[in-house]
Amino acid sequence: MLTFAKACYRHRTARFALLTLFIMAMLAIFAPVIAPQDPYETKILESMLPPGGDHLMGTDLAGRDIFARVLIGGRVSLVIGLFAVAISVTIGCTIGLLSGFYGGRFDNIVMRLIDVMMAFPGILLAMSIVAVLGTGLVNVIIAVGVGGITEFARVSRGSVLAIKQQVYVDAARSTGASDARIIFRHILPNAFPPIIVLASMSYGWALLSATGLSFLGLGAAPPAAEWGAMLSDGRNVMWDAPWAAIFPGIAILFTVLASNLLGDAIRDILDPKLKV
How many domains does one find in the chain? Predict the structure, then answer.
């Protein structure tokens, strides 16, 4: 772990991505201190004020401070992406590990079900799940998390199929080790690198999907401060107050970009074939 941390520190792209995500997280955590204005207080007389003065990023149609709403909204959007990826990793990797390890008819049945799920675009599958469960942040987390299961199941299964043929796995089986011990002690640790890379990249997709659902009115309900919902509100006044949509869009841009760059950097660090 220490070696991996040092490698990330030496990698320029990884440093930039981690620093960006760290700054976004700190801004969200300390939002009330950095932006003391009430993000939900409406002031009609201060409607659509341009950036500057007491309102660093201006105000929206209801006169609410956009800077405070972007920072507070970061708490919601960042947490949604984090929990959605956690669901995808937990369920998807469990399915992939068991399917790849036991193989046979069980593997065929599971993979065909995964193929059916992969036939639907991730965002469309998430929208279908929200339509069944109803709107709300918890249901958005579940929907986005379920939408990402297929990729983790495929990646983890592929890793297991390669790893279970190794000599050390046969040695563990010959000593009488249980299936659970072989899976979690010998196979899973060696399957971590591609899973970590996919998880870091999937965070950006999960964040985009969650904000997209909120933008469509299927996620956070007004007047919640959430980046996707703020974009949806800002599009109605795009010509008169473009800052209402630009600033939450910039927050999404930097977070997703940092997530994707971090995934690329981790892949470069963990893949020995890319080392010179």
Answer: 1
